[in-house]
Each structure stands twice: as C-alpha cells, then as structure tokens.
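Thread title: Can someone regenerate the structure for this chain?

I was given the following input by a collaborator and told the matching structure tokens would be attached. They weren't. Posting the sequence so someone can regenerate them.
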Amino acid sequence: MPADAFLWDTCVIYRWFQPNATDYVEHIKKHLEDCTARRSEIYISTITLAEVRPSIIGKRDLSPRQVIEMMSGSFIFIDTSPDIMSLAGHLRDQTYQDTRMPQNRASTRPLSLGDSIHLATAVALREEFGVQNLTFHTFDQGKRKDTEDGGKTVPMIGFHNWCRDCRDDEEVQKVLSVPKKLPAHPLCPLPAVAQASVETAPKAKRKEDPDAAIRTENRGGDHDGEE
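Best answer:
Regenerated them for you:
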C-alpha cells in the first residue's frame, strides 16, 4: 500500500476545472501524478457523482463519472454503503456549536448531508478498509452559505471548533481523528495567501487540537466559524 492516502471532497474536483483558478492547482496536479504513478491513493465517495454538475464546468456533454475520470482513471470510488449512510445520519443528528465563543453567545450550524457522507466515508476507509494513513482533502472552511435558508454549515477544516456538545460522542471522535487539510503537496510552494495565513495564525489554530480550541473559548472577540 502506498505511503499516502487521501479522500477528496467534491470541491477539490471543482477547483481543478475552474478556468481561472490558480491556488492549489499545481498541488492537485502533483497529487494526480502521484496517484497515477501509484505513489499514493486517492479515494472518492460515490456521493461526489451526485454533487458534480458537468454543466457548471462547461462539460455538459459528459456524465459526472466521465468528468471525474478526465482528471484521473486511478481514483478509487467508495460506495455509500448502509453503514456509511447510517453513520452520516448519526453525525447529522449531533448539535454543532462554536467552541471558541462563550456558550451563551456561541452560534450553531448544521452538518450538510454531503459533508456527513464524506466524513462517514473517511471513518469507513479507516475501520473497514484499513486505510490508517488517510487525510481528507477539502477547501471547505465554512465560508459558503450552503443551507436552504442561506445559512452556513459546519466547516470541514475547523470541524473540531464546532464540537462543544458532541466531542465525547464515540463516532464524532472517529471523525475528529481524521486529518482534514487543504490539498497542499509537499513539493509545491504554498499559495501566497495560504503562506501568510500559516505565518500569522495563532498556534492553537495551526493544528487540529480540540483541547486547544476549547482552551481559547473565553478569549473573546467575534467569530463566525470561518478559518
């Protein structure tokens, strides 16, 4: 088994096909090269086939699977099994509240259906497929308004900051243990914005440390959950 394994969020697929995108495109390209050369494995949940819309990226004549296979024929698709869907439902049923604010002022957000399935797939890859060296690649930092009423959902990067009331749940702990990162490749330079963020970020926010996030709860300031 290759040393590195990744589960890609649908937004990583979209970034590759954005005509004017520059940030992380070279990183994605390098990951694809590694995957094709079998230096790494890239997994994709079959929920991505329902999330990718070819018309949005100018590929109306192709199916979602054909769009994804344009990137690489080496992706490994993971079906949405009953166990994965049941876990996704459990994750969606939790209450997600911002740990960085005092409890009486902390906002709550829902976990989207798609994100819950991606996270459940990550857990299944570890527990059922034995992929222990897994990292979840995503661009989701909670900035988009994804709910039907125009609200924001729980971000994937920074997920641990929203687990005030559910962090002791056994299944949520499994999700917390999966690294969730931007798709940075070690052989590519970080984009300027990302580099500046790394250089100026407080230590408690530079790694996925739920305890550090809770220790900063009473520092004050206004947060809306965006990284």
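The beta strands are 4-8, 40-45, 76-78, 96-97, 108-109, 134-137, 180-181.
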